[in-house]
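Hi all, a correction to my earlier message: I attached the wrong file for VMP1 protein. Here's the right sequence:
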Amino acid sequence: MAENGTDCDQRRIGMSKEQHNGNFTDSSMLSERKRRDREERLNIVLWKKPLVTLQYFFLETLINLKEWTIKLWHRRGILVCALLALAVLTAMYYIEGAHQQYVRYMEKKFFWCAYWVGLGILSSVGLGTGLHTFLLYLGPHIASVTLAAYECNSVNFPEPPYPDQIICPDEEVTEGSISLWAIISKVRLEACMWGAGTAIGELPPYFMARAARLSGAEPDDEEYQEFEEMLEHAEAAQDFASRAKLAVQNLVQKVGFFGILACASIPNPLFDLAGITCGHFLVPFWTFFGATLIGKAVIKMHIQKLFVIITFSKHIVEQMVALIGAIPSIGPSLQKPFQEYLEAQRIKLHHKSDGAVPQGENWLSWMFEKLVIVMVCYFILSIINSMAQSYAKRLQQKMYSEEKTK
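and the right structure:
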């Protein structure tokens, strides 16, 4: 009886091994096919296949419009309420009365906040090449307010949104009366709105991983697949990058709210992994989003804001320009445009609306404007490429479905 039982166990083990080997072969073939399909999709870009890319982009746009229309129709009650509220607000906006001053104030604040929230969302999704909108917009804005505050010895220039030029107020002020806290308070609204936008931009990885875990599907997302592989090979992780990703995953999974808060409160390129981890382990939405919002819009934002304000304080800037001039041979030639730019900014700050506007443009501001234009254009191109690749993915999934039904 014992020998028969042993033989049965051995046969059962052998069958399970054969079954496992067959599954392994099938999974490896499937992985190879997915890899080839992904490479094929990545080649659908405007500079390689312009006609195909544009065709797929328009078809994907039509499909998305159809899906959004269907979703709106299913939620037509909410849509009707939103349209009624919009109609009431429009009537209040155009009807004259004592309420107009409050309407104009709310309009001004709303668009100012929406502008920075939108830039924060674009920063999280990468702006095409991953260049932060903090470097393009918020950082220069804080720097300009800082330079103006030290030059004017006041922060009593207009409330946001500022006019094309920040003008020093006419009030009499004493030298050195400006404080660091006053500058922080002046730019707090736009900085916090930008941080809130970055928190909102972290939601797609969370929802993608959560939906995949609940449905049992395997989304064709490189970051999610990397996360799955990391979980499988967690014990064998050797390189620094893998250990860092594993540390983020363990911190978020074991510590919870405070682990997410810690990851969100510091500049962290691996935070997308935290969102995927929270979604995969079904962390409650408000736990994830609340910790992310506090970390990014309050803690991290004040750290970044302090860094920019200190860096662009008057004495630090003067020391930096002096150090540039000390560079052998090319120092004076590099120092000159910076000095001209700072002098031009000082003139603009003391320019009154009834005087002549100073003419001329510094090459630093010209280069920055062209950089912004190039980055925005590349962002638009990346959207076209991404939507075209999404349509190609739809075609590949349709092909998989047809093969399974045969």
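Sorry for the mix-up. The chain has 16 helices and no strands.
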